[in-house]
Design a protein that fits this description.
globular, six-stranded mixed beta sheet, 13% helix, 562 residues
Length: 562
């Protein structure tokens, strides 16, 4: 008999300041888009404002999150899949299979208390392009008693009473997810990685122009591809919702707006198309606020790994003071351990940080220095935690995901020398990169630069890193010519970019040593070839990285043996 569990949630009110914005509608794909997304999410109950999605998944628990217009507590029904399918009706789900739930804690994060009182609110507001404000309520329900490596069906309901109504569309009355695989099981693991999402405009001829009807067709296509990729979870490499990671930027299923952007994550063409895939989100320089923490609750994983998921108070270094989100933690599935790191800082609060290690590019590196000073000195809490956890987990295949790029072929989002084990960094021996490589971390995934880049350094003590900043943010070019040729002396590189203002395509890689004709044939032919996510498959000691474009093509696929 299939099992059912009805889980109530609790919410408290806390208003959030939202930004105004303008024009969102049905998907229109420009002629140069190689892949069109499917139909927008529709047919849901009128109470629903954010389609359900999963965070903080473990071997035995997960958080199911959604939002409605009602402050009355709702509920979740959940059932193990039977033969790889869900029942046609949730009324068939029995109540006997899974243990009773525990109530949602007040704060999102129980690990640190400093500044966390503002995390207890689950009410927020979304302002659309016409200036209308909608008051909404996030539900985050902890589902307990799961079995490792098992697939589950779930649905969300209007109340926790017998008369509760399923809020999902009749055409999609349930969603599904899988718990993490048993540690040490040796089972294969597949996950996706994407960074820098949530912009619904493009630049044409130097003028900022929203996409037709306010929908970014490339991001919509990527979300749909991720939903059908077969991944067990998704890693976000920061800068999830532009421009400021506000409640309105994240938005909902009905609010519309062009600039500033509204509903660029939870709009009907975007996140619902992933099917609510379990997600772990690293922080970026955009969205340095408590909304980020509330949106992706991950306190169980943080607590279990001794990490943190909190709004913490900073003061002193570089003259910086204030409350900033901290999220660093680790989790294991099969023989894989993943480190979600906080290597980012807000651009607007850098104090006296100068970014001088970047030389002539120092103006773009002030936040890099602030991040190092606050997070990556040997006395920093994050550094000390990471060092201890790496030492406590010496085996398996390890990955790190963080926002700032270890190496990047970009004029405005360059390499971060403060994180590198390189001669540029006076603290190279104790750098983040040195710590990762000394503990046999296989590779790092970064964002920040809105491009695709693969770097495999030739020097020892340096790590393979992917810049996967093509998740929906306005694309940027990579540097070719002499800059690229010099970089190729130190690393195996494949990088592609696109100038949103001029429409100029760009490339850096082996073809740069073979003349203009080779470079021209290697460069992307459309923006849809640069917008992308990474699909990563781990089987034993073999790792395959399959970059997948919004055009639906796999490119620059690489297989590594560790």
């Amino acid at each position: 008999m299939l099992g059912r569990k009805v889980l109530p949630f609790r919410r408290s009110r806390l208003g959030l300041t939202a930004l105004a914005a303008a024009g969102l509608g049905a998907l229109t794909v420009p002629a140069h888009a190689g892949a069109a997304a499917g139909a927008a999410y529709s047919g849901f109950n009128g109470l629903l404002r954010r389609a359900p999605y999963v965070t903080d998944v473990t071997q035995s628990s997960a958080y199911v999150n959604w939002a409605t217009t009602s402050s009355i507590p709702g509920s979740v029904k959940i059932s193990p899949m039977s033969g790889g399918t869900c029942p046609s009706s949730t009324t068939q789900w029995s109540s006997s299979a899974i243990k009773a739930p525990t109530a949602l804690p007040g704060p999102v994060n129980p690990v640190k208390s400093a500044g966390s009182a503002t995390q207890t609110g689950w009410a927020f507001s979304v302002t659309n392009g016409a200036g209308a404000v909608a008051h909404e309520y996030q539900a985050s329900v902890r589902v307990n008693g799961l079995s490792a490596g098992t697939s589950y069906c779930y649905a969300v309901f209007s109340t926790d009473t017998s008369s509760a109504v399923n809020l999902l569309p009749s055409s999609r009355p349930y969603q599904s997810f899988s718990s993490l695989k048993a540690v040490g099981s040796g089972a294969s693991v597949t996950f996706d990685v994407m960074g820098d999402t949530g912009e619904n405009y493009q630049s044409t001829g130097g003028t900022v122009t929203p996409y037709a009807n306010g929908i970014n067709p490339y991001q919509a296509a990527l979300d749909e591809e991720i939903g059908s990729s077969g991944a067990q979870f998704l890693l976000l490499a920061g800068d999830v919702a532009y421009a400021g990671g506000t409640a309105s930027n994240y938005g909902d299923l009905v609010a519309t707006g062009g600039q500033p952007e509204v509903s660029t994550i939870f709009g009907p063409n975007y996140w619902p198309q992933t099917g609510g895939l379990p997600t772990f989100a690293a922080d970026g320089n955009h969205g340095q606020n408590v909304t980020t923490l509330r949106t992706w609750p991950t306190h169980d994983t943080a607590a279990a790994s001794g990490g943190t998921y909190a709004l913490d108070s900073y003061s002193g270094i570089d003259g910086i003071s204030g409350n900033f989100p901290d999220d660093w933690y680790a989790f294991s599935t099969s023989n894989v351990r993943i480190y979600v790191l906080d290597a980012s800082w807000t651009d607007s609060t850098v104090g006296t940080a100068s970014g001088s290690l970047c030389g002539s590019n120092a103006s773009h590196c002030k936040s890099y220095q602030a991040d190092y000073d606050e997070h990556w000195q040997q006395t920093s809490p994050e550094y000390k935690w990471l060092k201890a956890d790496l030492a406590a987990h010496p085996g398996g295949i390890k990955f790190a995901v963080m926002h700032y790029p270890l190496r990047s072929d970009s004029a405005t989002e360059p390499s971060d020398p403060y994180l590198q084990n390189s001669t540029t960094n006076p603290h190279a021996a104790t750098s983040l990169e040195s710590l990762l490589t000394a503990n046999h971390v296989a590779m790092a995934f970064n964002g920040h630069a809105h491009t695709y880049q693969r770097w495999a350094p030739k020097a020892s003590g340096q790590i393979i890193n992917y810049v996967t900043g093509g998740g929906g943010g306005v694309l940027e070019p990579v540097l070719g010519s002499t800059t690229c040729k010099n970089a190729l002396q130190t690393a195996d590189i494949y990088a592609i970019g696109w100038s949103a203002s001029s429409g100029k395509r760009s490339y850096c890689g082996p073809a740069d040593t073979s003349g203009a004709a080779a470079v021209a044939s290697a460069t992307p032919q459309s923006p849809g070839a640069v917008y992308h996510f990474l699909k990563v498959t781990v089987s034993g000691s073999t790792v395959t990285v399959s970059p997948t474009s919004a055009n639906g093509n796999i490119f620059d696929q690489k297989t590594y043996k560790f």
